[in-house]
Structure formats: C-alpha cells, structure tokens
Amino acid sequence: MAAKAEPIGPRNGHELAPLNTRADGSERPHGVTIVLQGSRNSLQRDAPDEDRAAWSGKLQFFLSIIGYSVGLGNIWRFPYLCQQNGGGAFLIPFLIMLILEGIPLFLIEMAIGQKMRLGSLGVWNTIHPWLGGIGIASCVVTLFVALYYNVIITWVFFYLFNSIRLSADKLPWAHCPQDNGTAEAECTKASATVYYWYREALDASPSIEEPGAPRWWIVLYLLLAWIIVFFIVMKGIQSSGKVVYFTSLFPYVVLTIFFVRGITLPGSADGIIHMYKPKLAKLLDPTVWLDAATQVFYSFGLAFGSLIAFGSYNTPNNNCVRDVLLVSVCNALTAIYASVVIFSILGFKAYTMVEKCITK
C-alpha cells in the first residue's frame, strides 16, 4: 500500500483528516489518512504503529475480555430475566439474539480496533471527523457506568469488612438489633438482613426531599474503590493486564464454591426446576425478546468503546473471529452456570421460609 495518496477532485476540508501530524507539527512515523476518491470514501492505514502497547500473551487478552464481559449482567441480571420471562424458555430468544446481535457487533468492534490499532476516539475520528462525537459519547457513557459500579464495589467492601467475624452468629445482619431486650419493630416486620441493608448500609431517608448526611465510613469505602481502580489502570494494559489473572478467575472460584454449597442445601432442586421449567407461552410476548436483546447488549458491553480498545492491543493478523466465538460461548455458559447457583440458593431460602410459616 502506498505511503501517501493524493485526493481526487477539489478539496472541501474533509478529504484529509489531519491524523499524521503530531501536536508540535512533526510527522508521525506511521499514521492514518482518509482520502475521498470520486463518490466513495477509501480508508488508508499505513503500517501499524509500533509504539502501541500490546498484550503480553493470548491468555492475558482472553482473560481481560472475559473479565470485562462477564459480570453482574451474567450473575444476577440473567437469572432474574430468566425467572421473569418464562424460565428455560428465555434461553431460546437469548441464544437467537446472541447469534444475530451479540456476536456480529462484538466482532465488528474487536476487528475495527485490531485493524486500526486505535481507541474508540481515534477509530471514529479516522472513519470521519464528523463521527468523532460517537467516540466522545461512548467515553461519557463509560464514565457513568464507572460511577455506579464503584458504588456497588463500595457496598461490597462494606459487607466484606463487616463479615470478618469468628462465627456466623456474630454477623451484624444475623439478628435484629435489641432495644431494652426488645427487637426493633421494623426489623421484625421485615428481616435482619433487609433491616441491615436499608438502615446500616444505605441509611435510606424517608423521601428524596430529605437526602440526609453522608456516612463517613461509606465515603471511605468509596474512596478505597476509586484508589484501587486507579492503581489498576494507571499504566494501561501493563498494569490492568496483570490484574485480570485474579479478577477474571476469582469469580469462577467463588461461583464454584457457592455451587457446591448451594446444591447440597434442602430445597435447592426445587429452585433450579422452577428456574428452568419452560413456559413457552411467554415467547409470544414481544417484551421477552426485547429483554433478551437488551441482556445480550448489556452482558457483552457493546458500544462502550472498551472492546475497540481491547482489540487495538492485538496484532493486525490476530484471529479475532476465533476470539469472539470463544468469548461468546464462555459468556453464555457463565450466565447459565450462575443461574443454577443463584436459584439453588433461592430455592433453599424459599424452603426455609415455608418451614418457618409451618412452624408459626
């Protein structure tokens, strides 16, 4: 491919995107040129930028994608949607949307980042300067996601540090608080865990007009969450690529522990049967198909720009089709596996609630 290409026809200010020039006016050794030829736009990409960071190995890349794709959407949202939208019947629209929507869009984002070796902002500016706003919008959306995900991590830290006890009976959410030997009436009506969540973790106010004051320990946990995120991403993939060996594999270890424990509890089989017992009549509801499409979009993390960035650290000759298929299969199987774990525990909870009702 030629190093440079001359525009055909008169220039109107949009034929050449100034992507080959650095801020100081010097020429980049390898750059991108957008050329307008007649009635068609042609994109020319010179040799890949040798200064671009790269994954240290295929395993690091694969674990990074798995750690990004597999999350709360698989572990909690998918089981909830399954139970709400026909149980096992929900797997039919989910798999169809996975094939028609998830895999193609996933492949497009990975391939375009790998081919251009640019992040989301650079990719959309390269396609056309007028499309640069798409890259900016994806960064803004990612910022919003980071804001609320760090709040969730804050609650995780809160429960983690409060769960360090010698026995389960001493957990602060194991029993209702006592006032002169009498349990709180609000806690008695709900449960000890619900009371602890709303009154200790959230400290929920009566209404939105009364926001209340921040709890200093929650603020410290939030600060800790942001500090950890900063240290993970401060050196790009040189730091985050090493952390994924823990962040991607540890959730599967925890899921397996819960799975072994969950299936041994009484009532777990009833929960799993209730989860996957198909209600085929639900497939006639368009909302079920919409939920399946939304779940695929959400669980893959499409349109956030992150997949483009992940792909940009691969070599241009990497087999991204194989990577996309492997990650897609792993994503779907993780959602199904997590559903079994969640509903085995919910089945046990339902069993204990029935036992308490019979006893009372």
For the biggest β-sheet, the strand order reads 1-2
Q: What gross morphology would you assign?
A: globular
- Report the oligomer: single chain
Strand content: under 5%
Number of strands: 4
Q: How would a crystallographer describe the biggest sheet?
A: 2 strands, antiparallel
Low-pLDDT ranges? 1-21, 29-48
* Alpha plus pi helix count: 14
Q: How many angstroms separate the termini?
A: 81 Å
Give the overall pLDDT as a whole number. 82
Instruction: Tell me the series of helices and strands, N- to C-terminal.
Output: EEHHHHHEEHHHHHHHHH
Radius of gyration: 25 Å
Structural class by sheet pairing and helices: mainly alpha
> What level of helicity do the residues show?
55-70%
Family: Belongs to the sodium:neurotransmitter symporter (SNF) (TC 2.A.22) family.
GO biological process, one term: amino acid import across plasma membrane
GO molecular function, one term: L-amino acid transmembrane transporter activity
Subcellular location: Membrane
Topology summary:
Blueprint: E1 32-37, E2 40-45, H1 58-69, H2 72-84, H3 91-116, H4 120-127, H5 132-162, E3 178-179, E4 182-183, H6 185-189, H7 192-201, H8 216-233, H9 237-247, H10 250-263, H11 268-276, H12 286-300, H13 306-312, H14 320-359
Helix pairs in contact: 1-9, 1-14, 2-12, 2-14, 3-12, 3-13, 3-14, 4-5, 5-8, 10-14, 11-14
